[in-house]
Each structure stands twice: as structure tokens, then as C-alpha cells.
């Protein structure tokens, strides 16, 4: 997780992210920092090991208003591979320049990096793919799910599948209630070890059945509505392992309140529900709990 020291409304990403709102209050950075620290505290108390990347100490470092969402520019594999992704907004590309700091953070925690793959990084000539925002990955069955958008180009999804040794990609459209593409796949769906949450309503009928059939091969599918997706970030959740061998299903307080009692009962079979109070980060940043977390699958040294 990355401390949001530069957090602010990002005009460059607001062009296609319908969830961002320009705030009236002036202290959004302070509010976001407080929400972040509380989130780290709650995750740690729940038994999740959290690695926090702090402020960039380079004197001329570019401002990174969306740095609190690191899963878009970096991901890791159990093989030790680290992947750096090409970002759509110019001011988000500076986030990937912090790879040396992240590498040091991994080293301090005795994690082994066995290869670095730049799918694009800061190179704007490559097709865009924004990490595990663009892709929701079934790591158990080696299937990658991705909804098309200007931030998720199908050719780059296929590059990821080929280069990282995944079995296949399931690529589809996901359309909001306003008729626009959802900016990221992880807003409309999430995959746990034995369950999946998805807004089937967002997927056009011609592709819907094939996506749901693939998900249902290995998991209990929990269907959420467009209203739950857009108003409460119910699709932007993540299952995490805890130190005692258990798991928690992490979401925002908004998402927890947006799920029905039946849906909560379904998810509670797979882990304790953990709600993070992040209203400012959601409202101004346009991303939720899952976006704030870049999972670490790297092996121990």
C-alpha cells in the first residue's frame, strides 16, 4: 500500500472515471491520509501483513495524486516475477518510477524478486494495461478476466497471458448505467479463492453467459446490481490471507452497507468481512478498497 501524501482530485483520470468527484473542501489530503492510516491499522489488526511505501524523498519528484492505488502499475507473481504496467494518464506514469523504492521494501521484508517485466511502464508507445485494475486474475486456474476500455487494451491483456504463462483471457465489455465503459475491470468484479462477485447486468447479453459460465466452473458466483456497483463499490473488494492461515474479505464501509444481508452471508463463508472507512478516497479518487492494495505473491528468500 502507498501512503497518499500527494492525494488530490486528478483531472487527467477524471475524463473516463465516472466515480471521481471534485471536492468542495480543501483538506482532502489530510482526510485521505487519516483514512489510509486507519485502513492499515484495521488490516494489521485483522492479521494481514501490510507493507507501506511512504513519501518519495527525491527533491524534484513529480506529484502523484493517485499513488494510493498502486495495483494499477505493479503486480507480483509467486515465481518471483514483478510486472510494471503502462498507465493511461501521464501523471500516473511517474508512479512506476518508484520501483527501486518498492524493490528495497521487498528486500527489507526478505522477499525474492526473480525477474522484472516492463509491459510498458513509462513508455507511452505501448498499448495500455493498468495492472490488476484492468485485469481480475484467477491465479488458481490461470484465467485472466478483463473488460475493454481505453485503460485496458485487449492486445496487452493477451501479451500478459502469454508472457506470464496464464491459460487464457476472458475479455468482455462492461457498460455503466450512463452507457460508458467502466474504466477498470475490478470495479465490476472480484475473484476470491472459492467465490466471485460480478455485476452481470453491466455485461452485454452476447458476452454475459460465457463470462458467468467460466466463473461458475470453480466458484460460487455472487451477482451484484449496477446500483450496488456504481453507488457502493460492491465490485471493488478483495480476499486476503491472514497470518493465522485464515482470510478476510476486504471492502469499504460503503460496499459493506451496499451488499444485501444474503450476499454478506454468502461471502462470510469464505472469510470475515472487513470494512475500511475510506469515503474521501472513494469520492475524490474514484477507487475503493481493492484499488488501494497491490497483493504480494513473491516467495521468501
UniProtKB/TrEMBL annotation:
Tell me the domain of life. Bacteria
Task: Report the InterPro entries cross-referenced here.
Answer: Amdntrnsf_FN0238
Short name of any one Pfam family annotated for the protein: DDAH_eukar
Write the protein's name: Amidinotransferase
> Which source organism does the UniProt entry give?
Flexibacter flexilis DSM 6793
Cite the source lineage.
Bacteria, Pseudomonadati, Bacteroidota, Cytophagia, Cytophagales
Amino acid at each position: 500500500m502507498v501512503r497518499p501524501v500527494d492525494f488530490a482530485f486528478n483531472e487527467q483520470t477524471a475524463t473516463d472515471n465516472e466515480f471521481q468527484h471534485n471536492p468542495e473542501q480543501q483538506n482532502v489530503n489530510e482526510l485521505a491520509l487519516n483514512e489510509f492510516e486507519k485502513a492499515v491499522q484495521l488490516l494489521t489488526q485483522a492479521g494481514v501483513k501490510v507493507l507501506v511505501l511512504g513519501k518519495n524523498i527525491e527533491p524534484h519528484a513529480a506529484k502523484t495524486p493517485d499513488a494510493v492505488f498502486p495495483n494499477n502499475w505493479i503486480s507480483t507473481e509467486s515465481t518471483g516475477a514483478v510486472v510494471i504496467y503502462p498507465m493511461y494518464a501521464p501523471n500516473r506514469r511517474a508512479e512506476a518510477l518508484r520501483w527501486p523504492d518498492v524493490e528495497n521494501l521487498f528486500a527489507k521484508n526478505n522477499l525474492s524478486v526473480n525477474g522484472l517485466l516492463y509491459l510498458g511502464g513509462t513508455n507511452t508507445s505501448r498499448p495500455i494495461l493498468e495492472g490488476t485494475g484492468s485485469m481480475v486474475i484467477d491465479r488458481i486456474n490461470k484465467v485472466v478476466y478483463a473488460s475493454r476500455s481505453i485503460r485496458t487494451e485487449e492486445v496487452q491483456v493477451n501479451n500478459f497471458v502469454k508472457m506470464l504463462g496464464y491459460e487464457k483471457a476472458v475479455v468482455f465489455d462492461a457498460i455503466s448505467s450512463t452507457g460508458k465503459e467502466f474504466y477498470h475491470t475490478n470495479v465490476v468484479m472480484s475473484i476470491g479463492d472459492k467465490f466471485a462477485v460480478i455485476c452481470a447486468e453491466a455485461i452485454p447479453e452476447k458476452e454475459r453467459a460465457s463470462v458467468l459460465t467460466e466463473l461458475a466452473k470453480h466458484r460460487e458466483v455472487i451477482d451484484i446490481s449496477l446500483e450496488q456497483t456504481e453507488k457502493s463499490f460492491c465490485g471493488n473488494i478483495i480476499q486476503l490471507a491472514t497470518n493465522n492461515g485464515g482470510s478476510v474479505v476486504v471492502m469499504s464501509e460503503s460496499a459493506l452497507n451496499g451488499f444485501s444481508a444474503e450476499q454478506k452471508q454468502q461471502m462470510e463463508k469464505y472469510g470475515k468481512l472487513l470494512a475500511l472507512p475510506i469515503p474521501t478516497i472513494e469520492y475524490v479518487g474514484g477507487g475503493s478498497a481493492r484499488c488501494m492494495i497491490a497483493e504480494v505473491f513473491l516467495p521468501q528468500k
